[in-house]
Structure formats: C-alpha cells, structure tokens
Amino acid sequence: MTITFKNITKDYGGKSVLKDINFTIESREFFVLAGSSGGGKTTLLKMINRLIEPTSGEIEIDGQSINSLNLRDLRLEIGYVLQQIALFPNMTVLENIGLIPQMQGWSKEKIRSRVEELLPLVGLSAEKYLSRYPHELSGGEAQRVGILRALAAEPKIILMDEPFSALDPISRKQLQQLVKKLQEELKITTVFVTHDMSEAMILADHIAIIKTGEIQQIASPKELLAHPANDYVASFFENFQEDLSQINLSDLTGLISDENIAITNNSTVSDAVKALRTYQKANESGEI
C-alpha cells in the first residue's frame, strides 16, 4: 500500500511542528524517518493511524483519504510497534499475539495456527513460548513478541517508533536483521522512526531526513551518503561516525564509482563518509 502526505502541517500552541510535508511512501518499501529528537518524526508517523491529526493537509492510503475510513478499522489494519512494547502481563504469548486477530473476529483455531506459524520466524519455539507470560521473557524476546503482535492480523502497513532503542547492542542488531528479513518476505509497507543513522542505513530502502518539521532530503542510503542535500544531512552522518564504523560497505555495493575516492567494499560507512568529504572539499577547491 502506498502512503501519500499532501501539504501536511501541525501546530501546537502556535508553534509549527510540521511544515508543508509532501512525499509518497511506495508500496512494500522500508521507509525510515530519521533526524534529531524533536524534529517531528514521531508526530508524522502517528498521523498515519490518526493517533495525531494534522492541522492541515491530507494523508492517503492507496489514493483514499484516511479521514474517509472508519477509525477503528484503520487502526486494526495497521500494525504498530513502540519502544515500550507493553505486553499485557496477565496474558500469555499466544493471547498477546492473538489480540488483534481476536478483535477482528478470528476463530481460536485460526489464531493459534497463525501464532504457531509466526513464532519460528523470530526464532521462538511455539512449543516453549505459547503459554509463557511476559515476566518469563527477556527484553529481546518480549520485543519479538511485540513485533509478532503487530504482524498477526496480516497488516499491509506496519509502523515502528524507535522499537529497538532500549535494547542492548547484540539484541538490537539481531532484531534489525530480523525485521528487515520479515519485511522483505511478507512484503509489508514499513514506516520506521529512528534518530540513529546507522540503523537507518541498515534497514531503509529510502530515508527522509527531518529537521525542525521540514524534510531536508529523501533518498536511498547510497544517495544520501554520496550526495547529501545540505550541511545538516552531511553533519547527521558525521555525528554517528562511531556507529557507522560498524557497517561494512559490502551491503552497499555500487555506492561510488569514482576511482579518485579511495574506498572499497571492505571499507566501513564511516570510512566512506570521511573519504567523500575529503574528495568533495578537494574538488571544490580545484585540487582535483
């Protein structure tokens, strides 16, 4: 499903939080909203399932205004994953994952079958985990259950608001890889909010960089790295040098073809940022 933002604005107490937002998220793509805290990323995300209403403008899903859709049905049809999963403590894994399908009228047999189908996709055994309660799960396991709860009713869109920011680095990396794999296999339009550029680079088909309510650039990770639209986009990469040094360019092949830029597929993204900036400065000064 495509998601289109048309002339979206949002004001709080006379302050403009989002300013004339216009772009389209294509069907089945992994789209990341990135930028510094307070830039409007989460506000924009929550407008898709109408947890927040815009001051002006319109959002369409497959060409249909979301304001014309039944609000309950809209929210039930869109998966939603938060940083704090908040599983219901008195409900088992089966009951937590099956909650939305139950609200949609699925039979108990169909719900159980669906949960048993999903659990192995995130590395959890149905036999071991179906009857467990949230207090019996680790943080990473609870997050996996939360992701499956969002996927259980077979949504065409899933929204994820910094879902891994509270996890340890190992669990975070595992879940990044898992979510990307699930998204590609299930072909779900995914909108993901993060302030971490390294996470955005790993996951995204396209990234929108947002600063104080305005879109600075929308592009693929490769294009953003090679051709930042302005100083803010360039500096956003540079602020994550340590994290970017963990990403290898072998996953971003074909990024740069200019033989004057000394990087290879064995270089890290951090190496590439530094080499690109050095090359661009030399080129601008006429040294190349």
Mean pLDDT: 86
Helix content: 25-40%
Tell me the series of helices and strands, N- to C-terminal: EEEHEEHEHHHHHEHEHEEHHHH
Name of the level-1 CATH class of the largest domain = Alpha Beta
Spatial extent as radius of gyration:
20 Å
How far apart lie the N and C ends? 46 Å
Summarize the biggest pleated sheet: 6 strands, mixed
Q: Which strand-content bin applies to the residues?
A: 15-25%
Helix run count? 13
The total count of strands amounts to 10
* CATH fold descriptor of the largest domain: Rossmann fold
Characterize the overall form.
globular
**Order of adjacent strands in the largest pleated sheet:** 6-7-8-3-9-10
User: CATH architecture of the largest domain, please?
Assistant: 3-Layer(aba) Sandwich
- For the record, the count of structural domains works out to 2
Query: CATH superfamily membership of the largest domain, which one?
Result: P-loop containing nucleotide triphosphate hydrolases
* Unreliable stretches: 251-255
Secondary-structure-based class equals alpha/beta
Pfam families: ABC_tran (PF00005)
Enzyme class: translocase
Keywords: ATP-binding, Nucleotide-binding, Transport
GO molecular function: ABC-type quaternary ammonium compound transporting activity; ATP binding; ATP hydrolysis activity
